[in-house]
């Protein structure tokens, strides 16, 4: 059993302690202006929690031990002192991590270096807005190109844009804006970027607290967007001349494909959101969705397991306590690792059983997760609305 020596300490209270992610809060607004290099000493930790072994069905899919079943317990710190990290990408053994307040941290050979990001429109950092999504070009090794999702301001209003950048002499420089005018604000910014098995670039976008945007197909807010590497609308998108691939989402921050090409996305439920006409929504109802082109996932007309004509129900709905799912990653066994913020844990979702189980707790809020070369990596997010420890925030490799 994973971390069996402390199974009795399943810390379910973590689900009760975190403030709802959708609550608006003032964040650090200073953009990185320099390059800083530090050396990280690796430390092996033993989490004080236990996590249940995933179902035997996950292992039987390949006839081998499942990735999560092979964990020995504990983790290694690969980077520390990160400032609101949001997204990570691997290029061989090198890791690149966005910080919401600005800069991309390179973690290489035990050292971490904050690299500047130069964009034609200044970074806007307020609330949940800033530098968030990052994905490396499939040919990064040869072209040193990546794509970022960042907030900016125009005529006094907040927006988001998807930009191609190139790493040149340790600085990420804008090459081309693929898409601008994505709704922005201070909450529900979305921001996850990923390349699909079809070679297309996908992005999540939030409804920025404006619920009506999610059902408005002419708006880019509350959607999953799909485009070519050059920012063009693919001819096979479900709606003609539109980047919209799926809609009716609130604040999706996770995208992952299983081996059969099925796309899954996490979405934040309404906990903490203001209710039109007065009051605050206290339900959890965070979701895992199986994404189909052109599908409507219902927000705000329906939520949780509610159904309505023409709307697609989620395949998993969390309970009344928010877990706030963020980044997700598929395992070799076609299960889904889920980083949770309010849930303060890394969880495992099995689409075949539709069950969610704990893998790692006692590290606080978890923003992103990746599987790389047979290992699981997570980014903590305690420097934003969490209880930051001395080394937070951190990049961890599970053992």
TrEMBL record:
The keyword Signal applies. It comes from the Bacteria. The lineage of its organism: Bacteria, Bacillati, Bacillota, Bacilli, Bacillales. This is PQQ-dependent sugar dehydrogenase. Residues 48-57 have a biased composition (Low complexity). Residues 1-25 form the signal peptide. It comes from Paenibacillus wenxiniae. Keywords: Signal. Residues 34-57 are annotated as: Disordered. Residues 82-383 form the Glucose/Sorbosone dehydrogenase domain.
